[in-house]
Design goal:
Layout: E1 2-4, H1 10-22, E2 26-28, H2 29-34, E3 41-43, E4 50-55, H3 63-71, E5 73-75, E6 82-88, H4 95-104, E7 112-117, H5 133-156, H6 170-185, E8 191-193, H7 202-206, E9 212-215, E10 218-221, H8 230-234, E11 240-242, H9 266-273
Parallel strand pairs: 1-2, 1-4, 3-5, 4-6, 6-7
Antiparallel strand pairs: 8-11, 9-10
C-alpha cells in the first residue's frame, strides 16, 4: 500500500509507477485529508509493503503528509516493510531522518528512503523558478530508470544510499531552513487572482488543504495554506499569483503526455523483479 501526497503531480506519477512495478495499491493522501468521512484507517494484507511518496518541502516532510501520518491507523500491521520515496528538484537534506522519527512514534520502522529528481515547481523564494523545458524533460525522462532501481532495492530489502540524494549542507537546510519554512509559510498567504480567471474552480479542486472557497466566481484563500502552490501551478490561465514574486516566473504541473517514455518498459521490469 503506497500513500502519496502530491500538489503538482510529480509524486502522484512516481507513486503510480512504483505501484505498477511492485504490485501495490495507491492511496491519495490529498483525497483522505479532504474527505470529512475518512477515519484514516487502512487494513493491510500479509504480503503488502507500506510506502510513503511525497515531494520535498524546503528539505523536509510536507506538513500535510505529517498531518496524515499522525492520524494514520494500520490494521493487521505485523512488521511489514516500510519505505519512502521523495521527489525533489535537487536534493532532500535530512528529510529521511525527520520521516524516520515521525514513523517511530507510530511504531513503524522506516527501512529505506529514496529520492527521485523531478521538475521544480516551487517559485516563491527569490531566485527559485521552474526548470527550462530542456532540464524538465531530462529529469522526467530519466526518472523511470531511477524508479526501477529504487523498486529493485525495495524488493531486495536493501537500503542503497546512492539512491538518496542528501545534497550539500543538509544540516542547515533541514535543521534551520525547514523549521523557518513551516513557521512562516503556514496560514494566510498573499495570493491574488486577476481578471484572466475563467471561473473553472480548478484551484479549489486541487487545493489539498481544502483552503480555497469560491465567492462571486473567484477563489478566496483561507488561513490554512501550506504553500504547496497547487493552485498557482494548475491555473490554466496563469491568473493566480503569490503577491508579486511569481508574476514573471514559470508554471509547472506534471502532464505525462509531454514526455517521451518509449524507452520505458514497466511490465518487463516488473517480471524481472517480482
Amino acid at each position: 500500500m503506497i500513500f502519496y501526497f502530491s500538489a503538482t503531480g510529480n509524486s502522484e506519477w512516481v507513486a503510480k509507477q512504483l505501484a505498477d512495478i511492485l504490485g501495490e495499491v495507491t492511496v491519495s493522501v490529498n483525497d483522505e485529508l479532504r474527505n470529512p468521512q475518512s477515519d484514516f484507517t487502512f487494513s493491510l494484507s500479509d504480503d503488502e509493503r507500506i510506502g510513503f511518496v511525497f515531494p520535498i518541502h524546503s528539505w523536509g516532510v510536507p506538513s500535510l503528509m505529517v498531518k496524515f501520518i499522525k492520524r494514520l491507523k494500520l490494521e493487521n500491521y505485523a512488521g511489514h516493510q516500510v519505505f519512502a520515496v521523495c521527489t525533489c528538484g535537487d536534493d532532500a537534506g535530512y528529510t529521511n531522518r525527520i520521516l524516520s522519527d515521525l514513523l517511530k512514534k507510530k511504531n513503524l520502522t522506516l527501512e529505506s528512503c529514496h529520492t527521485v529528481q523531478m521538475p521544480n515547481s516551487y517559485i516563491v523564494f527569490p531566485f527559485f523558478d521552474v526548470d527550462s523545458d530542456e532540464v524538465e524533460h531530462k529529469k522526467v525522462e530519466a526518472a523511470p530508470i531511477r524508479i526501477r532501481k529504487i523498486s529493485k532495492a525495495i524488493v531486495d530489502g536493501i537500503e542503497d544510499k546512492s539512491l538518496y540524494n542528501t545534497g550539500s549542507v543538509p544540516r542547515l537546510k533541514t535543521n534551520v531552513i525547514y523549521p523557518l519554512f513551516k513557521k512562516y509559510t503556514f496560514g494566510q498567504n498573499p495570493f491574488t487572482v486577476s481578471d484572466d480567471c475563467i471561473h473553472c474552480r480548478l484551484c479549489a479542486m486541487k487545493c489539498p488543504a481544502n483552503n480555497i472557497r469560491i465567492e462571486n466566481d473567484k477563489p478566496v484563500w483561507g488561513n490554512q495554506c501550506v504553500q504547496c502552490l497547487a493552485c498557482v501551478n494548475h491555473c490554466p490561465k496563469r491568473a493566480i499569483d503569490y503577491g508579486k514574486i511569481t508574476k514573471k516566473k514559470g508554471r509547472y504541473h506534471f502532464v505525462e503526455s509531454k514526455y517521451d517514455f518509449t524507452h520505458r518498459n514497466n511490465e518487463s521490469s516488473r517480471r524481472k523483479m517480482m
